[in-house]
């Protein structure tokens, strides 16, 4: 246990698991007054501040003290954003999530209901990693991660790179689903390069936010994006509140692991008949099986071919091992159609979304995938009906360890 004194212009970032008690004075966590807070979950940050100074008891937490924790622009925004759609853009760790959490809490305490859209799929707050999610908030929260999302759109990757169209559709769907007039949108730290510029610009065009907050950690780092916002969009350029970060190596992957655990732990193994459920985010099962091609293709590709299917525009191959790109290219020339080829192992332990009536209702790990038998075994906490399985790109162990990736270009 540690006793800590907090002046009114000081704050502290404490990492859970933690128990914090106010011994004297007043204290807030992410803008919400409290007397005692105890969170056993791992890897969540609590910003503790005080209006008049406080003495605190802190148990079991890694924390750092910071000066001037509440930036002026947080106060200024509070008056301006009720009934507005506000998008937050910034690099990784610029404070997008923190700004949204603090502002949402203060708005809720003032009686303004808030909807949150979390499209930061690499470092999600609201839903599982790799998922665009949204919720309509009624009460203040100590951390978004303590909530369950009301809407999910499964992307299945840590970055929108390679999935720009799905990403735009997912954000749009989440936007269509929210209920409140005040909407705060979190975005990924994907801000540099041609694809990121295009994505951010199109997202702004699509959602038409009333205000876009560009949070810079160093001056000018988002200038290229600010200069490309459509005419008429209101861009506000602010300085990141984040100066020091609690030192915690691997904290980002620890956060993701804790979140995977939240959504995957204590799941059940369910077997799905792939002739009855649709599979998405893959081209598999859109053609006709060509078992007779397997011996010839195995020889040509230099690896045992397990599954072949052909459609008017594509040949899809699942093999035992990796096949050189050159060999695939040669086959494309021969067949005069696109050939997509991957080792069958890339589907083992794949992170997947489970969908019913067009909505993602749960996530899971595909422990086995057998196209010949038409069966997939999925470990998931979701027990409801499923009409589609959405293939992701991350491969995961049962305890949320990332094992590898399925390439964006795989069948
Ligand atoms: N006022 C502050 N002063 C110091 N550190 C802060 C402050 N606000 C937030 N932080 C810390 O900065 C880190 C990054 O903040 P946050 O997660 O909000 O950034 P982000 O831009 O959403 O990052 P990501 O891309 O990971 O989602 C967190 O560890 C958070 O606790």
Please describe the structure with a list of short key phrases separated by commas or semicolons:
transferase; 21% helix; binds adenosine-5'-triphosphate; EC 2.7.1.78; polynucleotide 5'-hydroxyl-kinase activity; Rossmann fold; Jelly Rolls; elongated; 411 residues; kinase; 8 helices; seven-stranded mixed beta sheet; ATP-binding; 3 domains; alpha+beta; single chain
Description of the structure:
GO terms for molecular function: ATP binding; ATP-dependent polynucleotide 5'-hydroxyl-kinase activity; polynucleotide 5'-hydroxyl-kinase activity. The protein is of the alpha+beta class and 411 residues long. It folds into 3 domains: 2-67, Jelly Rolls (Sandwich), CATH 2.60.120.1030; 72-243, P-loop containing nucleotide triphosphate hydrolases (Rossmann fold, 3-Layer(aba) Sandwich), CATH 3.40.50.300; 263-411, no CATH class. Helices cover 21% and strands 37% of the residues. The chain has helices spanning 72-80, 96-109, 164-177, 194-207, 223-226, 251-264, 294-301, 325-335, and strands at 2-6, 10-15, 18-25, 27-29, 32-34, 36-39, 45-49, 54-59, 62-67, 85-90, 114-118, 131-137, 151-154, 182-186, 211-216, 234-239, 268-273, 278-280, 288-289, 305-310, 314-319, 338-343, 350-356, 359-370, 375-380, 388-396, 402-405. The protein has a 7-stranded mixed beta sheet, sandwiched between helices. A hairpin with a 4-residue loop joins strand 24 and strand 25. It is elongated and about 80 Å long. The structure holds adenosine-5'-triphosphate.
